[in-house]
Design brief:
Blueprint: E1 9-14, H1 23-32, H2 42-51, E2 58-64, E3 70-80, E4 86-90, E5 102-103, H3 110-120, E6 125-132, H4 136-142, E7 148-161, H5 163-173, H6 176-189, E8 195-201, H7 202-217, H8 220-224, H9 232-247, E9 251-258, E10 261-271, E11 274-282, H10 291-304, E12 311-313, E13 329-339, H11 344-374
Parallel strand pairs: 4-6, 11-12
Antiparallel strand pairs: 1-2, 2-3, 3-4, 3-5, 6-13, 7-12, 7-13, 8-9, 9-10, 10-11
Helix pairs in contact: 2-9, 5-10, 7-9
InterPro entries: Acyl_CoA_acyltransferase, BioF2-like_GNAT_dom
Protein name: GNAT family N-acetyltransferase
Pfam family, one: Acetyltransf_6
């Protein structure tokens, strides 16, 4: 990779799993970044890449030449956006659907410009998916010079805020008929044993994660082979990422019990007033009591009690039938498609057409499948 630098800054293309990597500098940036992203921290990303064949992913870091302090960083790899065209992409995945790069609050405007140019690589195109568009980091990248930026793949997913607005969101979600019905279902669940909610943190959360893995594997995800415990590599990555976060006290597991029976569990990462709902599981034998919804509401309540709490991101797909009626806020996300050079617009148009073709074929396949089901 060609060297990119300014009088004060330089860009490095690093192997995230390199034993000589300055982990303190990386972790330090993660802990102060404008917008938290636990999935781009070394505690999560290194286990993910180690166990999930991420050897080709590189960490693009902008750092101060004199002090060595990191000013911006994100993992980047090459993959298809649509049917055919591979481009450089910020490494957000199904296990980490948040593409916000780590950006130092004191970074100047040249920092995102250098980062974007370096991350785009020889192909001169970079995609940053699953990016909260109202975040400060997104705004600074949109204002960066030197490239052509378009926003695509926009959608909204469930979230909730803190403070007075969050309290109002909770009252709206847990009022009227829903409140009456949820209380009735919780009483019915209590017929199987006294119900109680609990939150685990630190070492107890690490231990509780094993119970979560068993609960998830016993349900539909286990039957479909998508539970974390279904494959050795996903179980190994998850255990290490959880252990790392628990050690930093950046992990919480909320649980609902009926007597001595665990009926629902929710794994959350927390970073400086932000909470990220990573994985949820429930015992399907108790599905008629809506244990997942019961726990999500309790998590909402607990989040509002956290000093300095500002945002809970569900990380859920848009339109999620369980969480959207309960977490009433909406987080607008999109993909930044950044291109450089004289043919920047052409490169972007080709990428957009490729993505549109994939969406069309997926829609056609779903329609055909639905017709075959009803034939």
């Amino acid at each position: 990779m060609d060297s990119l630098e300014s009088p004060e800054l330089e860009v490095c293309c690093l192997k995230p799993l390199d034993g000589a990597l300055p982990l303190d500098a990386w972790q330090g940036l993660s802990e102060v970044s404008l917008d938290p992203n636990p999935f781009f921290s070394p505690s999560f990303l290194r286990p993910l890449l180690k166990e999930m064949n991420g050897e080709s992913v590189r960490l693009i870091a902008v750092r101060n030449k004199t002090t060595g302090e990191w000013r911006m960083a994100a993992p980047v790899g090459r993959r298809r956006l649509g049917l055919a065209l591979p481009v450089q992409t910020a490494w957000a995945t199904d296990y980490s659907p948040l593409g916000t790069p780590l950006l130092h609050p004191e970074a100047g405007p040249e920092t995102p410009e250098l980062f974007l140019k370096a991350a785009a690589g020889p192909g001169k195109v970079l995609a940053v998916p699953y990016l909260p568009l109202t975040s400060e980091t997104a705004q600074r990248m949109l204002e960066a010079g030197g490239g052509r930026i378009v926003v695509t793949a926009q959608s909204e997913r469930a979230c909730h805020t803190g403070g007075r607005q969050g309290e109002e969101q909770f009252k709206t979600a847990f009022s009227g008929k829903r409140r009456k019905e949820m209380n009735r279902l919780l009483r019915r669940l209590g017929e199987h044993g006294e119900t109680r909610f609990e939150s685990l943190q630190g070492a107890s959360a690490r231990e509780g994660f094993e119970t979560f893995l068993d609960l998830e594997a016993a349900g539909w995800k286990g039957r479909s082979g998508t539970a974390l415990k279904s494959r050795p590599e996903t179980a190994a990555f998850a255990r290490q990422a959880i252990a790392n976060s628990a050690e930093r006290n950046a992990l919480r597991i909320d649980r609902l019990w009926a007597g001595d029976k665990l009926v629902a569990a929710l794994v959350l990462f927390s970073e400086r007033g932000s909470v990220f709902a990573w994985k949820i599981a429930f015992d399907e034998d108790y599905a008629r009591y809506s244990p997942g919804a019961q726990l999500v509401l309790e998590t909402f309540r607990k989040n509002l009690e956290i000093p300095g709490f500002s945002l809970a991101d569900s990380l859920a797909i848009p339109g999620h039938s369980m969480i959207e009626p309960l977490w009433r806020g909406r987080l607008e996300t999109g993909m930044l498609l950044v291109a450089f050079g004289a043919a920047a617009k052409l490169r972007q148009d080709l990428c957009l057409a490729d993505m549109a073709a994939e969406r069309f074929l997926r829609s056609a396949a779903r329609s055909l499948r639905d017709r075959l089901k009803t034939a």
